[in-house]
Amino acid sequence: xxxxxxxxxxxxxxxxxxxxxxxxxxxxxxxxxxxxxxxxxxxxxxxxxxxxxxxxxxxxxxxxxxxxxxxxxxxxxxxxxxxxxxxxxxxxxxxxxxxxxxxxxxxxxxxxxxxxxxxxxxxxxxxxxxxxxxxxxxxxxxxxxxxxxxxxxxxxxxxxxxxxxxxxxxxxxxxxxxxxxxxxxxxxxxxxxxxxxxxxxxxxxxxxxxxxxxxxxxxxxxxxxxxxxxxxxxxxxxxxxxxxxxxxxxxxxxxxxxxxxxxxxxxxxxxxxxxxxxxxxxxxxxxxxxxxxxxxxxxxxxxxxxxxxxxxxxxxxxxxxxxxxxxxxxxxxxxxxxxxxxxxxxxxxxxxxxxxxxxxxxxxxxxxxxxxxxxxxxxxxxxxxxxxxxxxxxxxxxxxxxxxxxxxxxxxxxxxxxxxxxxxxxxxxxxxxxxxxxxxxxxxxxxxxxxxxxxxxxxxxxxxxxxxxxxxxxxxxxxxxxxxxxxxxxxxxxxxxxxxxxxxxxxxxxxxxxxxxxx
Length: 519
What we know:
By secondary structure, the chain is an alpha+beta fold. It has 4 domains: 3-131, Up-down Bundle (Four Helix Bundle (Hemerythrin (Met), subunit A)), CATH 1.20.120.160; 143-196; 199-381, 2-Layer Sandwich (Heat Shock Protein 90); 386-518, CATH 2.40.50.180. 45% of the residues lie in helices and 23% in strands. The protein has helices at 3-30, 35-55, 58-75, 83-101, 110-117, 143-170, 173-196, 202-219, 236-257, 261-266, 299-308, 314-319, 322-327, 350-359, 438-442, 513-518, and strands at 198-200, 223-228, 233-235, 273-282, 285-292, 363-369, 373-381, 386-394, 397-402, 406-413, 418-420, 423-428, 431-437, 455-463, 466-472, 474-482, 484-485, 498-501, 507-510. Strands 16-8-9-19-18-17 form a 6-stranded mixed β-sheet. Helix 6 runs antiparallel to helix 7 and helix 8 packs parallel to helix 9. The longest helix has 28 residues, at 3-30.
């Protein structure tokens, strides 16, 4: 085995043991008398020490030895696991992880050893990487190679659709049968290639307990995180993209949402705050829900800050509904924090979270109740490579709407369209649904193209928990869509960022319903 292979094996196994130490230490802090937790941590630290010694990583070996010694003292009841000692150990585990990832990293370990010996005198160490995303488990294949494989399968899918069109027009019975078999194999290949890229969402969920614990400790708060990943798996690209937004939401929830123990007691709540994070399937999408039982968002403060920043006027603020006021949080630089901290309040707020989620085709919904807490719901696609799409016609042009956003399609008599306060609406399932004429938004064709017709075609979509009706000329069919990113220099009018290639070789733009209904 080559030196590189030994190094790769060492990093993979060592990081697994560091993760075990991290997670088990969190459990041990909750139940200090659990001997099995102590033994597990001791074994993992001892294993990493031995592996590091074999590889010649002396600094890593020495750090593991000191961590091992602390847990040995705890096992012998020579010392107790206090909150400060746990914090010191977590800092050592963070730097241990960095040293394992980077064999060239050299660290002055003396402050870390002193911190372990005198945990009540915690010092601020340069450990800025401690809160960066942990490396996700990898298979022995470069992600770039996996991306290439998925792209090739996408091209194969497009070629197959072109062949479908040709055979349906001129093919024989045998050629159609052969094409059916080929299509089945391509579908299987597509499924398997996408499956290779899937990573359990628990991979990032399990590190959130540590993030919440460290943030709460630094703020003098008591917070418990409840998690339910339900064995959900996500495309690695999407998981990487949403990790930082989720961390930001959790930190903000602890910092701004959960009250201090004394405040909670005065409000009749338990001193320990709660945050719940769960993930579940919702059609062709994954929904991640983060909820806390804190003080909620003060909508009036949000409005006041927006007035101060010149985003809205006082008159506009009076007319603004709670939902619209919460939408203001997506504007860059709008922070209601009274002071800047290392955790939040730098004006880098929900706009970062929302934009990162939207970059992967997702959506964010915020609801809050003063004194009771805030809920954030992230809706994200299962994949960013191949999706289900509905082909629609608008002013003699073909466009694609993602199936994940569509509730249903309707054909109604045009006189069923009513006008309310100047807005076109229809009644659908006992709800008033506002209508959007797609041709007008795209500024193409005759703006009155549908108004004089007896029948109107509508696609009902859902965005941000609300339903909208998109008026199009006609519907074609559902099909798998291979997503092609548009060049960032292309003027997309903020309505589309992706395209696809149709079986006839023409390019069709993929419309984002969320962007359409906002315009």
